[in-house]
Design goal:
With 202 residues, the protein is α/β, with parallel strands linked by helices. 47% of the residues lie in helices and 14% in strands. It contains 7 helices and 5 strands; from the N terminus they run H-H-H-E-H-E-H-E-H-E-E-H. A 5-stranded parallel sheet has the order 2-1-3-4-5. The mean pLDDT is 89.
Length: 202
């Protein structure tokens, strides 16, 4: 990543997939790498260009892996996860990894991706019993000055559906005391570990 060496980066990733299998590579190797790149980027140890370089190469692999996994429809009989990034939030790699983790687990997932305004969520959350949880990552949006007002708009839309969030934008925030609805994880790794637990249904 530091050398912007795509052939070597891809060769290492392909070797891991060949030796360990796709699921093990993404859950153990890639998951840890995403966490490490995020830390290095946040501390200015690597530049934005390096972060984008690694992210886009991993995205390509994740898209291919996701395409090979079976998809299921989220219904009241088979509730699933609604996964999205807030409006103007473009840091998608972590969320794409969450999508892979859930889909590999055999869960129903509706993946909305980047920059989703709250008004687009509201109609999807009207159907009671369809969602186990709404999952999001706050990196740059909402920022720390706006997250309380964002939550005040989001919480009524959720209507009791659990909200799982991580990202630097959620640090030192606990859901404004609404712990029954908001569960804040310190990092992407702990969020994914929570999602992989057999009891991750509420």
């Amino acid at each position: 990543t530091i050398d912007l060496d795509e052939p070597t980066f891809t060769a290492i990733l392909d070797a891991c997939i060949h030796e360990m299998g796709e699921n093990e590579t993404f859950t153990k190797i890639v998951g840890g790498f995403i966490h490490q790149v995020g830390v290095l980027w946040q501390t200015d140890a690597i530049g934005v260009a390096h972060e984008h370089f690694a992210s886009n190469l991993i995205k390509q692999k994740l898209y291919t892996a996701l395409d090979r996994l079976p998809a299921f429809v989220a219904t009241t009989k088979n509730p699933g996860y609604l996964v999205y990034l807030p409006d103007q939030e473009m840091h998608e790699l972590g969320l794409l990894y969450v999508h892979y983790i859930l889909k590999a687990k055999g869960e129903s997932v509706v993946y909305l991706g980047q920059s989703v305004p709250l008004e687009y969520l509201e109609p999807l959350l009207r159907e009671k019993g369809r969602w186990k949880s709404v999952v999001s990552i706050w990196t740059t949006n909402p920022d720390t000055d706006r997250r309380e007002s964002y939550w005040e708009q989001l919480e009524p839309i959720l209507a009791g559906v659990p909200f799982w969030v991580t990202g630097i934008g959620s640090h030192e925030w606990s859901g404004k005391g609404v712990h029954d609805d908001a569960l804040v994880f310190p990092d992407l790794r702990s969020l994914c570990e929570g999602l992989l637990e057999p009891s991750a249904t509420v």
